[in-house]
Amino acid sequence: MGPGPSNPYPGAVTAAGSPMLGHLDPAFLDVLDATCEELRQVFRTENSLTLPLSGTGSAGMEASLANLVRPGDPVVVGVNGLFGERLCEVAGRLGAEVVRVEAPWGQPLDPEAVLRAHPAPRIICVVHAETSTGVENDVAAVAAGKGEALLVVDAVTSLGGVPVEVDRWGADVCYSCSQKCLGAPPGLAPITVSPRARAALRERPPTWYLDLGLIAGYVEAGGGRAYHHTAPVLMVQVLHGALQALLAEGLEASWARHEAAGRALQDGLEALGLELFAAKGHRLSSLVTVKVPTDLPGGLDEAGVRRRLLEEHGVEIGAGAGKLAGQIWRIGCMGHNARLRSVETVLAALGEVLGR
Amino acid sequence: MGPGPSNPYPGAVTAAGSPMLGHLDPAFLDVLDATCEELRQVFRTENSLTLPLSGTGSAGMEASLANLVRPGDPVVVGVNGLFGERLCEVAGRLGAEVVRVEAPWGQPLDPEAVLRAHPAPRIICVVHAETSTGVENDVAAVAAGKGEALLVVDAVTSLGGVPVEVDRWGADVCYSCSQKCLGAPPGLAPITVSPRARAALRERPPTWYLDLGLIAGYVEAGGGRAYHHTAPVLMVQVLHGALQALLAEGLEASWARHEAAGRALQDGLEALGLELFAAKGHRLSSLVTVKVPTDLPGGLDEAGVRRRLLEEHGVEIGAGAGKLAGQIWRIGCMGHNARLRSVETVLAALGEVLGR
């Protein structure tokens, strides 16, 4: 119940025992094609270039920017948490002129401020679901006013659990991870690229490993399956197993389940007398943040509470990250764990450790 | 029996069913520490900075260069196959002054030519085991004469199956993959960095995802386990399972087993009347290359032979890559598959399909 990895769907666990296939075996290419199609469904997109990148969610962030940013490009980044900061750092290393638009951690971004920040940004980056604060940012509003800019959306903590609408929004690039609301282990970064963004991809970006043009030649059947790197076969099979479970339930049913579980968790934490951290009305169901109370029982500090939860109850929750270290806890409610029974378990354990 | 992935060790398969652990769970950090120590044993090194990178073998290549190369650096690359070419491409994208030292594909590099190619190279890159040709290059001879240069060694197709001696050679950076002679699925890139290379790492390399300095802060216990990206927990557990199997057998015993199986495969192919491709005396045991005969039985082309092997015998072998496409087959003899019984299976199947 931390900020990810979450416990995988049973179908993902089963898939982990599949026999090894070669990365060019027709049987594996069928699995890869199916996985890409499942990702289109969860991203709500028709984008042909939709695939699981061979790295964790942060590789999705790096690929998004490294394939688009040219030195000197104005890149507007909304920053109201650790992952907005990370976008600035990645863009900065690529030589972008980074324009930061800040909001306090725990508050949502102001979409108007993001849109006013530069007269002609080449790229605008927004984190949909800030894993460091539990806040949902209003991507639709930014997308509606983006003009000629390319919109890059980080959906690491939302995809599969919180509504993501790539085509309806008009997002140009959207990336996520495998280990949160998609219910697989960490190791892959689902990513989708609109035709407009695809036309803007750099031809020979500084990264060879994450070069989306070369990767497309292997992933898309029309690309002739040109060898780029050896696909992480096992992880793709496992992600496929997780996505099958998610889509068998139904994407909207999964959103509703995350919503119900997240709300129950928030209510239960308040019933324990704890104070939620993220601004009301902008709270994620998939990642709930709560302030560490000042009156911890004798001798316990915040890390001690987490240690007791893990050692005595088998429940993991997350610490605060970045400048929120020591101040909040982050409780995930993602994928297979987004269920009332998991919420009840974490609330009971936390109540016991806190003596409430 | 292709050029990788190979069938994983049973211990790796078992580990794939392990419960999910958080990337900061003490139980997972124990697995990670053990995996890094096992990698030191297979690399034959004392290097503290030794770890499984969160990407495939190509991510290891990119990390090696992206963390060292500064624009304008003279980088000498030995090129006698596809992976030498790839090193040139990766270094070129990073702004290096690439100095190519070529040998014909199928022949080994001339170490003297590599050492004479530039008066003061900052980096020298050599592929130990060329997966595209089946040739072993003489890393020790290049290392002995490298002077002030940093030596980067690609051990993707040798580590675990063919002697790699990072410290004895004096290699500065050495990377590999998980899915060949280490006997795990693809998805991780083991890498080791000498203290001298570590002191030369760029402070803010263009890649954030593969920034070895930041990754060290998480992987090394002394770095305070600073969060960088979410470690691919399942794949690390699986690699740990494979390495335990390999080291329980013994590294030298594994080398001897690969040597015996590779020799039997080479002898068996010649007994079928086929001609080996790689130069005699420089042939890898882990990856055997053989010329496609001109007298294929009626109606079959080289791809048809591979298809029949796969569909009728459940045996995968690899096609030629790059400029050798259509001219050779590549047969892996790696990890769990480096056994006489696997060799007998592939020889029997190939004999049947070729009518020999």
TrEMBL record, chains A, B:
SUPFAM superfamilies (alphabetical): PLP-dependent transferases
Keyword Endoplasmic reticulum: no
Reported cofactor(s): pyridoxal 5'-phosphate
A Pfam family: Aminotran_5
Keyword Metal-binding: no
MF terms (GO), sorted A to Z: transaminase activity
Domain of life: Bacteria
InterPro entries registered for this protein in UniProt: Aminotrans_V_dom (IPR000192), PyrdxlP-dep_Trfase (IPR015424), PyrdxlP-dep_Trfase_major (IPR015421), PyrdxlP-dep_Trfase_small (IPR015422), SP_NH2Trfase/AEP_transaminase (IPR024169)
Keyword annotations of the record: Aminotransferase, Pyridoxal phosphate, Transferase
Domain called Aminotransferase class V: residue spans: 20-294
Family recorded in the similarity comment: Belongs to the class-V pyridoxal-phosphate-dependent aminotransferase family.
Alphabetized PANTHER family for the sequence: ALANINE--GLYOXYLATE AMINOTRANSFERASE, AMINOTRANSFERASE CLASS V
Protein name: Pyridoxal-phosphate-dependent aminotransferase family protein
